[in-house]
Amino acid sequence: MSQAETRLKEKGLELPPLPSPLAQYVGAVRTGNLVFVSGHGPTRDGQLTHRGKVGQVLDVEAGYEAAQLVCLNMLASLKAEIGDLDKVKRIVKLLGMVNCAPDFGQQPEVINGASDLLVHVFGERGRHARSAVGMAGLPRGIAVEIEMIVEVE
User: Fold this and answer.
1) Burial level of 110, CB count in 10 A (0-12/13-18/19+)?
2) pTM of the predicted model, to two decimals?
3) Which of 84, 88, 97, 135 has a CA-to-CA distance to 72 between 20 and 30 Å?
4) Do 85 and 71 touch, CB atoms closer than 8 A?
5) DSSP 8-state assignment for residue 85
6) Cα dihedral 151, 147, 74, 57 sign
7) Which of 20, 145, 27 lies closest to 94 in space, CA to CA?
């Protein structure tokens, strides 16, 4: 087991089975030493979870949990692409999108669910540039979608 997966286990978490794309794309693409991880949603056991607008149907805590679950799914796709999460040199960038009520302004607190997990798993290598934005809607009504750019060995 990689050091990264050991750190996940310390939090009582594990990588889920590789999520299936919802359309005609792949979960991650490597070019040179960068991996571009497609936008992922909150999926557990092959089913989308955490549906609805944050600030309306879901509270910030539920959004945070959704972002953490999205991050686990992104890490599963990343591992499938590179073979071992210990090959991660740096999490470069996250784009976090929150399906939220028009007057909702806590997108950063929601996306912290992913950012906090990445820093826990990778330490300083997990600190990243980030955008956290609100959306009028996301595919199939999910609360959070995140994409990621990663530098690898």
Assistant:
1) buried
2) 0.96
3) 135
4) no
5) G
6) positive
7) 145
